[in-house]
């Protein structure tokens, strides 16, 4: 579904992402792990068209998408969430999702109907009329997912959706992510929590200082000696 080859991104002299290649298969939940500053968000920014690549190519279902603008990539079926959720000021939860639904449904009534469906899919239908800025952290994350799925993606990139949540909130959101995946949306997720990546992701890559340290089946990736040393050893201590 997604084929990334030799992707690189530099900021001046800093190589934030360097020669990263991997393939995401339709229907999977694919993990991206790595320490702070490893280049995970930069990778997402490159895939979703927010940043131009310095090197490499990205294909979505066989079609080259690097060089396209974010709204064009979104229309082709790739949506992403942001680590820091910023709802539109002064708008209700429903209006926030409706803005995203306009990407596929230019008529207001249709956009609203699809926004309500997206809110239902993340268990937030009852909060539709609330001022979005009054949501809790966990609800903000669900709003962010609703905004992304309102664009009707086939591939959804989730950037650290579970950070800062209580164990109960994280478990509920994991369940939600599984459900969205079971409904036919392929998922790529950046996550720091190794247990969560192990539980949700069949395959994963590990980034370290912008370079790909390991890729493949999550279990094998987490057992990799270099990964243990660079990341998990320090994370476990
Ligand atoms: N717009 C930018 N301009 C300059 N440097 C940047 C920019 N965005 C990211 N960087 C740098 O690129 C490197 C990778 O950052 P990135 O945010 O992608 O890492 P990350 O793995 O997502 O980290 P975290 O887990 O903390 O979110 C860091 O050294 C960061 O300072």
UniProtKB/TrEMBL annotation:
PROSITE patterns: ABC_TRANSPORTER_2
Keyword presence, Transport: yes
Organism classification: Bacteria, Pseudomonadati, Pseudomonadota, Alphaproteobacteria, Hyphomicrobiales
The protein, known as: ABC transporter domain-containing protein
ABC transporter domain residues: 2-234
Source species of the chain: Bosea thiooxidans
Gene Ontology MF terms in the entry: ATP binding; ATP hydrolysis activity; L-isoleucine transmembrane transporter activity; L-phenylalanine transmembrane transporter activity; L-valine transmembrane transporter activity
Single GO biological process annotation from the record: D-alanine transmembrane transport
Keyword Transport carried by entry: yes
Any Pfam family: ABC_tran
InterPro entries assigned to the protein according to its UniProt record, in alphabetical order: AAA+_ATPase, ABC_AA/LPS_Transport, ABC_transporter-like_ATP-bd, P-loop_NTPase
CDD domains: ABC_Mj1267_LivG_branched
Domain of life: Bacteria
